Amino acid sequence: MIVSISRLVFLSATVSISMGCTTNASSSLPQQLNIEVTGSDFEWHVRYAGPDETFQTPDDYVSRRNITLMTGIPTTIFLKSNDYVYSFALPHLGLKEIAVPDLDFSLDFCPETLGEFTLKGDQLCGYQHPNLIGKVNVVAPREFLKWRDGIISEQRGRQHD
Fold first, then answer.
1. pLDDT, tens digit (0-9, with 9 covering 90-100), for 20-70
2. I need a labelling partner for 138 at 20 to 30 A (CA). Which of 17, 24, 29, 41 fits?
3. Which 3-state string (H, E, C) describes 75-123?
């Protein structure tokens, strides 16, 4: 495992971890998974970039607290905060970072182990907020596509209600 940390600004860091991720030959699978995780009102809001690979567009799909990842696909989590300083940790990957209002932080990694793991988060006030604790589901790429299609269908259904 290679870990490199580069400081861009005082508190702005990018952590890169290379775990043998390979480029996926299947055109139906994403070559990169980009996820925006925002701390807001003591809860994680998770946004996946849709097919246009741009956040905050109509093809994005969202969830709360829980993150679903694909094995073997390079992943970047962009951390943000709308209000407080939060800590974000994926202990099974040995990753931890903070989310700070008006600062950009990200984690780059490649999940390799299937399973359900814990997402740990805190708002740095000393009180543990249950909505900052979630699950990380690492699934095979085809299972991820089924999950994604279900989330997108559910969101489209809510838009028409």
1. 576 555 557 888 999 999 999 999 999 999 888 899 998 899 989 899 999
2. 41
3. EEEEEEECCCCEEEEEHHHCEEEEECCCCCEEEEECCCCCEEEEEEEEE
DSSP 129: P
What CATH number was assigned to the domain covering residues 2-159? 2.60.40.420
Gyration radius of the chain's alpha carbons: 15
| Residue 68: CA count within 13 A, CB half-sphere | 18
Residue 74 neighbours by CB under 8 Å, 6+ apart: 21, 31, 32, 33, 108, 109, 110
Residue 111: name the closest of 80, 136, 133, 142 by CA.
136
Q: Checking DSSP bridges between strand 12-18 and strand 2-9, what pairing results, if any?
A: antiparallel
Q: Which residue has the tokens 């182990």?
A: 113
Please state, as a whole number, how many other Cβ atoms lie within 10 Å of the Cβ of residue 44.
24
Residue 26 amino acid letter: S
How far is residue 68 from each of residues 63, 82, 114, 147, measured CA to CA in Å? 10, 22, 11, 8
Dihedrals phi, psi of 61, to nearest 5 degrees? -130, 145
What value does the mean pLDDT take over residues 81-93? 93
SS3 category, 59: coil
Residue spans of the domains in the chain: they are 2-159
